[in-house]
Amino acid sequence: MPPPLLVCLLLVLLVAVPRPWSVAGEPPRPGARPRAFPLRARQVPAGALPRPPSKLRFHHNVSLTVSLAVGTPPQNVTMVLDTGSELSWLLCATARQGSAAAGAAAMGESFRPRASATFAAVPCGSAQCSSRDLPAPPSCDGASRQCRVSLSYADGSASDGALATDVFAVGDAPPLRSAFGCMSTAYDSSPDGVATAGLLGMNRGTLSFVTQASTRRFSYCISDRDDAGVLLLGHSDLPFLPLNYTPLYQPTLPLPYFDRVAYSVQLLGIRVGGKPLPIPASVLAPDHTGAGQTMVDSGTQFTFLLGDAYSALKAEFLKQTKPLLPALDDPSFAFQEALDTCFHVPAGRSPPSARLPPVTLMFNGAEMSVAGDRLLYKVPGEHRGADGVWCLTFGNADMVPLTAYVIGHHHQMNLWVEYDLERGRVGLAPVKCDVASERLGLML
Known about the structure:
By secondary structure, the protein is mainly beta. The chain has two domains: 55-96 and 104-215, Acid Proteases (Cathepsin D, subunit A, domain 1); 244-440, Acid Proteases (Cathepsin D, subunit A, domain 1), CATH 2.40.70. Helix content is 9%, strand content 35%. The protein has five helices and 28 strands. A hairpin with a 2-residue loop joins strand 23 (376-384) and strand 24. The longest helix has 15 residues, at 307-321. The protein is globular and about 65 Å long. Residues 1-31, 33-39, 45-61, 95-108, 153-157 and 188-195 have low confidence and may be disordered. It holds the Pfam family TAXi_C. Belongs to the peptidase A1 family.
């Protein structure tokens, strides 16, 4: 079977550029002019992107990607923008590499550390090598005395490499020297190849790109059109955009299954149409171990609910859509192993999206409504007779398995999402991204 085509969605990335950056980063300069470069959404084949165990490996994952220049002289690389991960990494071209790395090199995607005059391996004794934010702490290679990092995967495979630093060029700003994982082994050896060669970690951990660049606020609008999206790094007050804020949630004590560097919010309830689901508050809150937090994650495509909440959503959505769509009623089928609320739709036709009941996630101070075309997703290549198969874009986290509620980027389309680290909050506002982009362009 030929590899799936890349589906690219061009977005505009506007970067509020600070003063010349160092490893530790510096505060932004007041009145800094924004810079622009493209951010894309592209379809990534199975296994092409290494994921920690808390991430679902999508069979047809659509990821938000950004092109950056790394090293001296600069090398162009494509990285997934991921608010759910800390360590940025690049697939490095070395003498020993898997076929996926070789495929990336053939595409001009992988990073060549030996060709960069500013590349430096991180020694074992550095503060960066003692970071404890990562799921697997860095280790020391006794022979080379270099710091090593490892990413583990849900199926038991692993990818590892060296912790390193190099300069990252963001637009035409002075380059930032940033730590990242220079991964020498690839996760996947499938003939599909690799669509992207790295990941830009944007959570709140000490080794994330956000922390190293001292970025205290960033926001984006993911468009459902080809060229109307926008992402801002840095401070920008938008008077035309009335944001509703929900506070970031952090337990007072460390809990074993709570990710303290994720963007976690409090999920208070769910509505289908105008009907609140009968879900106890305790089901939506983290338990005594920290399992059950709600994370906003640009690196995950769809949204996942823990079992009890998902079952309530599935039952009510099927009830309200029964007059509109015939349910698939196939217990053995689940798209991407977790989306099993599916329907028959005649081939060549689309579901009656405008008549489907919206699903609203309710937070402390804000709401996120999923409606219209974002509710159902056509399963590629799946048919029942002359009918196509479409599935609800909420998945059962227990089937992955995940121990958290995860809000993916598919449900953040045409929604302005702001991450305000200074005030510890996330802002949400429904908006057409093309309108927001136009008005933002007039302001900058």
